[in-house]
Structure formats: structure tokens, C-alpha cells
Q: What sequence folds into this?
């Protein structure tokens, strides 16, 4: 027998089973009034919804708990902060006024140095990268560009 034949046979058996169970359900349902059937259908839907949402919630908790439980060092700190909704690396785009030597853009970091990228003033598809360090005077990465300064914010209870 070909694979297609086997699949058609399986489909036919599934359809027959479905029709039989539908007929049985219909005969049982005739004993109920319309409002009772509506209440039973609503309760069944609510139970299915609660069952799947609780399972998903529990699965997510156990996976996250297991990841944090088995992690150590920096990975554990990242997972703990992610669970609290905190970005440990401050990777968001800085929305600050144009940095000047007198009023540079302040870049926060838990490390003593940080890599900063700025677009080329003539071709914004090119990004220029440079390292800024704690204690440095305001640094300009490209000619005519902004000035940056690092603000070192070490973590309390950190591993360093």
C-alpha cells in the first residue's frame, strides 16, 4: 500500500470516529434545555482557557526559575535583572541634547569603560566606534560630532 493510501485510510477512520462521537454527544445533549447547554458550553470554554493559561504560566515560571537556579556569576546577574525588567547593559538609544565640550552626553555604565558608536556626519550608514573611559575629559569621536563622557555607576554587591 502506498503512503498516500495509508494517509487516506487514517483520515477516513478519524472522520468516522468524529461522526460517531458527534452523534453520541447530540443524543446526550437532547436531555438538556437550551440555557443549560449554553451554560455547559461556557463553562467548558472557561475551563479550557484556564487550563491552558495556567499551564503556560507555570511552564514559564519553572523555565525561568531553572535558568536562574543553574546560572552563576554574570549570567545569573543578567537573568535576575531580566526577570525584574531591568536592562543591565543600558543598551537603549540615548536621547540627550547634542553633546558639547561644556555639556557632554553622559553615558552610564557599570563598567569603567564603554564602547560608543556614532554615525558618520556625511554617511549615516557608517558607524564610528570608540572607547570612552571613566575619568577621561569629554571625548569627541568624529570631527564635528558630539562629545561624550562616561559616568561609572558600579553595582551594589557586584562581583568586582
A:
Amino acid at each position: 500500500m502506498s503512503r498516500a493510501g495509508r494517509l487516506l485510510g487514517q483520515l477516513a477512520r478519524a472522520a468516522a470516529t468524529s461522526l460517531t462521537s458527534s452523534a453520541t454527544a447530540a443524543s446526550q445533549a437532547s436531555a438538556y434545555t437550551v440555557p443549560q447547554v449554553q451554560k455547559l458550553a461556557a463553562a467548558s470554554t472557561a475551563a479550557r482557557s484556564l487550563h491552558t493559561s495556567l499551564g503556560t504560566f507555570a511552564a514559564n515560571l519553572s523555565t525561568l526559575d531553572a535558568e536562574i537556579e543553574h546560572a552563576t556569576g554574570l549570567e545569573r546577574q543578567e537573568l535576575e535583572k531580566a526577570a525584574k525588567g531591568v536592562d543591565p547593559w543600558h543598551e537603549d538609544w540615548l536621547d540627550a541634547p547634542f553633546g558639547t565640550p561644556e555639556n557632554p552626553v553622559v553615558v552610564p555604565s557599570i563598567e569603567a569603560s564603554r564602547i560608543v558608536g556614532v554615525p558618520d556626519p556625511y554617511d549615516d550608514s557608517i558607524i564610528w566606534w570608540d572607547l570612552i573611559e571613566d575619568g577621561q575629559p569629554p571625548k569627541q569621536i568624529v570631527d564635528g560630532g558630539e562629545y561624550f563622557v562616561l559616568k561609572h555607576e558600579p553595582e551594589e554587591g557586584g562581583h568586582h
